[in-house]
Amino acid sequence: MRTLRSWIVRLFNLFNKDHRERELADEMEANLEFQIEDGIRAGMTPQQARRAALIKFGSLDAAKEAVRDRRGIPFLETFLRDVSYALRMMRRNKGWSAVAILSLALGIGANTAIFSVIDGLILRMLPVRDPAQLVRVEGTVYSDFLRTTLPIDRFPRSVYEHFRDHNAVFTEMFAFSDLDRPELSVGGQTEGSGGVELVSGSFFSALGVGVALGRGIDTDLESPAAVISYGYWKRRFALDPSIIGKKISVNNIALDIIGVAQPRFFGVSRDSAPDLWVPLAMRSQLTGEPVNSADDLVSLMARLKLGENTQHAAAALTVLYTQVPQGMRFYKGNSKAATMEVLPGGRGYSTLRDQFSQPLEILMIVVALVLVTACANVASLLLARATARRKEIITRLAIGAGRARLIRQLLTESLLLATAGGVAGLALAMWGKSALLELLPASPAPLVIQLDARILGFNAAATLLTAILFGLVPAFCATRVDLAAGMGRIETTTRSGLRLNKILVVSQVALSLFLLTAAGLFLGSLEKLKSVDPGFNPKNLVQISIDTSRAGYRGPQVAALYRQLLEQLEAIPGVRAVSGVRNGIIQNGVTKTSIVVPHNTAPSSDADTVDSADVGPRFFETASLPLISGRDFSAADDTQSPKVVVINEALARLYFPGQNPVGKHLSTGPGSMYEIVGISKDAKIVTLRRNVGPMLYFPALQGHTDRVSAIEIRTSGDPSSVVAAARQEVLRINNRLLVSIKTMNEQIDTTLVQERMIGTLSGFFGALALVLASIGLYGLMAYSVARRTREIGVRMALGADRHNMRWMVLRETLILGAVGITIGIPATLVGARLTGHWIEGLLFQISAADPVTIAMAALLLLGVAAIAGYLPARRASRLEPMIALRYE
User: Fold this and answer.
1) How many other CB atoms are there within 10 angstroms of residue 446's CB atom?
2) Cβ distance 211 to 259 under 8 Å?
3) Among 365, 302, 310, 307, which residue's Cα sits nearest to residue 343?
4) 38 falls in which pLDDT band (50, 70, 90)?
5) 808-833 pLDDT, tens digit each
6) What is the pLDDT of residue 18?
7) pLDDT of 443 higher than 60
8) Residue 709 to residues 42, 668, 737: CA-CA distances in angstroms?
9) Cα dist. 418→252, 367, 424, 466, 867 in Å?
10) What is the mean pLDDT of the chain?
11) pTM (predicted TM-score)
């Protein structure tokens, strides 16, 4: 105990500065006394001995400093002193420091926020064992019916079982499939719709995912068991440890809870977070469908064997696919040949990743340029402050401080500014990421971004890089002083710093022009998409998406339900017309149909496969899609009547040039001849982005009622007034029907989520770059006015009026802005040429080098430059000549 106490005392004394100084002074005094005693023994008087000892010993202060350097940690102590001095300088210049820190916080915060979303959505691996070994199995198949190649991302279970049992390239393989909007209940209490994923018995073992409680699913046999997620366990059962063995019902099928997944595991998709995992073999019980139904499809993942590669694995699976009996292969129409693909799977599945990877990468480049602009801004401020501190720097150099020591001091000040900006930027990023996620489609737990080591590491790296970017050059420039030339060198140094300051400001203007142009392009595309004419009238139109599969409707039952829905919905007050359409309007759902036109004179090409839609009676009236000639579909166009079709203008121009196609015929295959009964105006019912091509409209009542998944309602007034009544009518027929109701304007807005995100954020970051450039211009001109105060006083004393002084400063600002714009325009054009092919998919009816957008950005920058320069110019014009002449 005594030994421990002595070590604690020693450790305290080591870090106690006063104790160390007293100990050092005592030691020095003792050594001096020894020298004096030696001199006295040699015959000197005490005064002579003391004088000789002091001469031999040298300066006590110098000796103490040498001992401190040997005993302590010189670099750390010097750094702490530099930090203390930098803090005093920041307190002394609060306004200047606040502007610098805010500039850096905005730049670093924007980068951190975008990185956090990119990391969560694109970069982060699944929280499983060795995720880099995981692969996804997909492919393509040629459909004879559609005469085109179709992608495969899900397979019949028979294909999965054949791959699993006969492959030689994987160590483990597993399958999974979402259960479509199941109903959960616990203890007889309905939980509503939850996320349920059907998984093979190897799912948890192949992923290497443990359980927090109980055990995982380990069988491919039919077993009424379920593993719940940790989040659901916490949310619904408050982490009750006795949950194992309790019952949970899915679609009224009771399941035993056998385990709780580990906390960080959310499944293998970034787009969904299941509450339960259930054996795949339970699918038939839970859905009421036969095992080999067309919907019994699964996604496949596996682990590659050591030494295998994805190319060899894909070739092996392609061969295995040909060995699967024809009737058990892909379900979409006569697939005779298929090519398998094996893709990296460590990051899991994500449609959001596919949709938003490119916009997020573009935004990362944009915010990086914003950070460069912020660095140039702070560097400009540092140069101005270094000029104001030139006497201090020269004095310190004159009394012996080395240039390296001063550079280190100035870099410490820059690092302190960057650190403050980084901390503030981190707070802004964590606040802003929520707003950023709001711009993405609704997504569950995987995109709930939390502060962790990766985000902190990125923030720290950005902070350090920023400190170097904006601090190094001003530090070297500030300490580049020729002492031999005396104080006369000061003015030369000032002019050199001013030139560099102007270069930085011009660079800011050029970067801002690039960013403003990018913002203008994306915002312009968004506005063009919003104003595009779809060909039909979206006002007063409501779209109801209905999923009948879970409610058990099949074949003729769907037709009966469809007729009942039309009758019930049409009776709602305020409803003018009701119809239906396959896939819905503006939902990016495309159906392709191959056609043959008798006596066709058009060249055979890919146009023989055209878009098609199955629609209900009065569809064209309901959608307000004008018919150029012919008639709309009616209830009489059913299975008992001749087959009819309506074509659009594009198809009529292609196959019937200069003719009236009404009454003519076309075929979709052997024994499928249709009479053309109408021609509709070209309309963008699939997506606003696509140009309208040839299209067919088939009557759903002629055998395709089961393909209708959306009902359209045309209202006489505000469409939102019938939404509640429509939902009530649908659920009154069957409360197990899955219903989603939107106005058509809301549906159109939903399809523009990508464009809205990149337009909104690029606009915000462009405006931020504009603010930073204006701050830079204002700071430079304010500093220039302060430096030229005596000159302005002389001019005004000699008769210059206030208007001339104001124009002198304002002209210099406009020249700097014009130079930046002159440099920025060709740089923007080069950037547009280099990135045009990359971003053209995100632009709509606008070129990446659009001259109007560039011109508007340039005019905006010039206007901001005029405003930024006006305030210093106004200040210069109000200087009193006598006060200015006495200014130092």
Assistant:
1) 21
2) yes
3) 310
4) confident
5) 778 888 888 889 899 989 998 988 88
6) 61
7) no
8) 114, 22, 11
9) 59, 17, 10, 7, 28
10) 80
11) 0.78
Q: Using one digit for the tens of pLDDT, what is the confidence trace for 558-600?
A: 777 888 888 888 888 888 999 988 778 887 667 778 788 887 6
Between the CA atoms of 477, 478, 484 and 489, what dihedral angle is there, to the nearest 10 degrees? Answer: 90
Q: From residue 285, how far is each of 66, 99, 186, 225 by CA, in Å? A: 85, 65, 18, 12
CA torsion 698-699-700-702 (nearest 10°) is: -110
Instruction: Indicate the SS3 state at residue 826.
Output: helix
- Distance from the first to the final alpha carbon of the chain: 67
User: What are the helix (H) ranges across 119-259?
Assistant: 157-166, 203-207, 230-237
Helix (H) or strand (E) holding 297: strand 297-304
Strand pairing report for 710-715 and 627-630: unpaired
What is the distance between the alpha carbons of residues 363 and 111, in angstroms, rounded to a whole number? 9
Cite the DSSP H helix spans in 399-488: 403-438, 453-478
Residue 205 binned pLDDT confidence (cut-offs 50, 70, 90): very high
Q: Are strands 276-279 and 196-199 parallel, antiparallel or unpaired?
A: parallel
pLDDT at 198: 92
Report whether 310 contacts 342 (CB < 8 A): yes
Q: Could you tell me the residue ranges of all domains in the chain?
A: 2-72, 131-346, 353-530+754-885, 548-736
> What Å distances lie between residue 175 and 157, 163, 223, 569, CA to CA?
8, 11, 16, 41
Q: Is 307 left (phi over 0), alpha (psi -120 to 50) or beta?
A: left
For residue 88, CA distances in Å to 385, 407, 409, 463, 847 come to 15, 17, 13, 21, 52
Beta partners for 170? 304
Tens of pLDDT, residue by residue over 727-755, are 888 888 877 777 888 888 888 888 888 88
Helix locations, 266-350, DSSP H? 283-287, 310-322
DSSP β-bridge partners for residue 199: 176, 279
Residue 540 backbone phi and psi in degrees, to 5? 60, 30
Distances from the Cα of 157 to the Cαs of 40, 93, 294, 334, in angstroms? 105, 71, 11, 18
Phi then psi for residue 150, to 5 deg, are -115, 145
CB 510, CB 824: distance < 8 Å: yes
CA distances from 268 to 153, 214, 265, 440 (A): 14, 21, 9, 20
C-alpha radius of gyration, the chain, whole number: 38
* Residues β-bridged to residue 278: 198
Q: Which amino acid is at 279?
A: P
Round to whole Å and give the CA distance between 689 and 751.
Answer: 10
3-class secondary structure, 628: strand
Ramachandran region of residue 743, left (φ > 0), alpha (ψ -120 to 50) or beta? Answer: beta
